[in-house]
Each structure stands twice: as structure tokens, then as C-alpha cells.
Task: inverse folding
């Protein structure tokens, strides 16, 4: 079953909204990085047909504890590299 895209807004002290998603780990070949696929369901405006859209995120995995196929939760953070702006909070 594909993981669903779920944005959760939390408000820290400086009132910034932090995005949080959950998805499935697709690849862990890079050091301290996991590729996570997040699926979301969209609806066609005219025909009301539902379809799935996937997006892959490069997520920071400090201790290399993620395995392929695991479901993880991650949140946005400061830029860690050119493409990494997310870090894992749960797996």
C-alpha cells in the first residue's frame, strides 16, 4: 500500500510552519542519505477521476539506520546539501 502525502503544520517559537511527510524508503545507496517516495492522491477537476502522483525526496539519515521498504516520517530543515532539505524523525 503506498504511503500517503500528509502535510502537518507545527508552530515552533518563531511561528514558522514546518512541513512533515511520511513515505517509503526507495534507496539507501548514498552515505547518510535515503531516497524517500511520497505518494499523493489528486482529483481531476473535470472528470473527478482520482490518480496517484509520486515524488521522491532526498532525506538526511545521520546514522544510516533506514532500510529499503521502511515507512519513515520526515520534516523540513535547513539546507544540508544541494538537494537535501529534509531529515528523518521516525522510522
Result:
Amino acid at each position: 500500500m503506498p504511503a500517503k502525502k500528509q502535510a502537518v503544520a507545527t508552530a515552533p517559537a518563531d511561528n514558522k510552519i514546518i512541513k512533515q511527510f511520511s513515505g517509503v524508503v526507495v534507496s539507501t545507496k548514498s552515505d547518510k542519505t535515503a531516497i524517500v517516495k511520497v505518494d499523493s492522491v489528486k482529483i481531476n477537476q473535470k472528470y473527478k477521476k482520482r490518480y496517484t502522483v509520486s515524488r521522491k525526496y532526498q532525506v538526511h539519515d545521520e546514522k544510516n539506520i533506514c532500510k529499503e521498504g521502511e515507512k519513515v516520517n520526515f520534516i523540513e530543515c535547513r539546507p544540508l546539501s544541494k538537494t537535501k532539505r529534509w531529515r528523518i524523525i521516525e522510522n
In short: The CA atoms of residues 76 and 86 lie 4 Å apart.
